[in-house]
Amino acid sequence: MALTVAEMARRWGVSERTVRAYCAEGRIPGAELIGKTWAIPEDAEKPARRPRSSSRRRTLLEALREEKDSGMPGGIYHHIQIELTYNSNHIEGSRLSHEQTRFIFETNTLGVTESVRVDDIVETANHFRCIDMVIDAANRRLSERMIKSLHAQLKQGTTDSRKSWFAVGDYKRLPNEVGGRETTPPEHVAWDMSRLIAAYEAKSVKTFEDIVAFHKAFEAIHPFQDGNGRVGRLVMFKECLRCGVTPFIITDEMKLFYYRGLSQWNHEPGYLLDTCRAAQDAFGELLARFRIEPAAG
Q1: How is the chain split among helix, strand and coil, in percent rounded to 5?
Q2: CATH no. for residue 83?
């Protein structure tokens, strides 16, 4: 018989976050991630506390900055560039494969033989640079200027950038929808974005739940003509780095759960939160593999 994270947390007298960390780090034999939740053997024993190490492990942000600046291949920076770019672009319809995405990052050449959309290639290269921007600005407060800069970098040189009605690096000029639902009208976007950022930045401590809630509100506004999902997920990753929260990557396989969570947020916020927690668990395994200090949240 398998128990849930909540049930095991009560049994062991620890937080659910601690139990999820145990699972993600492979410290509970037989624990299995099924869909969005962990199934834990009923007879599993609470992992022993690890002895303190004399050498401090790097934080994720330290590792990302060191590896980015040194051009180190094969590390966590390398991994995140490929995984975050491939999945975020694929969710939005990119036809580039994971291998093609990796090839572009590693060689700065195409390495493709079949026909591909030029915009998919351009936006892949642009997304790599957006991740660098997120790492460089990780500790800075959120601002409209920062968010617009990410959009400008993502969409520069694309077919959209040559359309007279498409505002690269600025808020939308025409109404748009997401999932068949209306979004904020163009004339109200600046006001809504200003209020959203001000309310978020007014919080002295920002939790995982605050970051996900900001993302949902951002996507509901849908401030740009296109590229909202990718910019929103980049901002979410940046804020996790800034606030000491374990980041996560929404994979293409999680797309339907993610979209359902966004659409049902107003009456069932737990669905999106649980989807993001499942992605956090997978990211925790990555941190353990690269011996990166886990974040507090």
Answers
A1: 55, 5, 40
A2: 1.10.3290.10
